Amino acid sequence: MRAGNASATNVRTGKIKVFENRELCVEAVLASACLPYVFQAVEIDGEAYWDGGFMGNPAIFPLIYHGASKDVIIVHINPIERTKLPKSAPEIFDRMNEISFNSSLMREMRAVEFVTRLIDEGALDGTKYSRMRMHSIRDDAEMAQLGVATKLNPDWDFLCKLRDTGRQRADDWLERNFHRVGRDSSIDLAQIYL
């Protein structure tokens, strides 16, 4: 995704809609973050949309086919793994939500890994398909402490804590991995996403 893209899920068809630069508007941004249990669907050109996380968020495929950059940094807002098994109803709901919203990312990463492997094995023409260099900034331990309800928490101190935690994880990542940008991936796609 080049700067300025937003993803939303078409409620009627269940397909992903990527709003590119020329299509971006307030409604597209609202649609890309529309959680159906909180907001009504956002209508654009006669179609109703929900959050892109249901079908493809982030939508990686535009990068493979149209990307100007070969490096993609994914900033995770949902934990991929949890060490504690959810047992209470709220814990189970939170984990179901995380798995649901991570599922489209997992599918996209599997596709990137598959295409990369085919390019490396010579089965695909590397001049026609992009070999992406994937990077990831995540803090599963910190994110696992937050339930789904915290995504609606507008408390200023809470938002500042999230910002500060995010900055620290980004600084840590840059210190360990910046030298790999433009050279190779800093994550093992098969290990994390398969």
* Cα gyration radius (Å): 18 Å
Report the mean per-residue pLDDT as an integer. 87
Q: So what's the overall shape?
A: globular
Question: What helical percentage do the residues reach?
Answer: 25-40%
**How do the SSEs run, as a string of H and E?**
EEHEEHEHEHHH
**Order of strands, widest sheet:** 2-1-4-3
For the sheet with most strands, the description reads: 4 strands, antiparallel
Strand content: 5-15%
- Tally the helices: what do you get? 6
Q: How many beta-strand elements?
A: 6
Q: Can you tell me about this structure?
A:
The protein is of the alpha+beta class. The chain is 40% helix and 14% strand. A 4-stranded antiparallel sheet has the order 2-1-4-3, with helices on one face. A hairpin with a 5-residue loop joins β1 and β2. The protein is globular and about 50 Å long. The mean pLDDT is 87.
Keywords:
about 190 residues, alpha+beta, two-stranded parallel sheet, 6 strands, about 40% helix, globular
Write the layout of secondary structure elements.
Layout: E1 6-10, E2 16-19, H1 26-32, E3 42-44, E4 47-51, H2 61-66, E5 71-75, H3 89-120, E6 133-137, H4 140-144, H5 156-177, H6 189-193
Parallel strand pairs: 5-6
Antiparallel strand pairs: 1-2, 1-4, 3-4
Question: What can be said about this structure in brief?
Answer:
With 194 residues, this protein is α+β, with helices and mostly antiparallel strands. It is built from 6 helices and 6 strands, in the order E-E-H-E-E-H-E-H-E-H-H-H. The protein has helices spanning 26-32, 61-66, 89-120, 140-144, 156-177, 189-193, and strands spanning 6-10, 16-19, 42-44, 47-51, 71-75, 133-137.
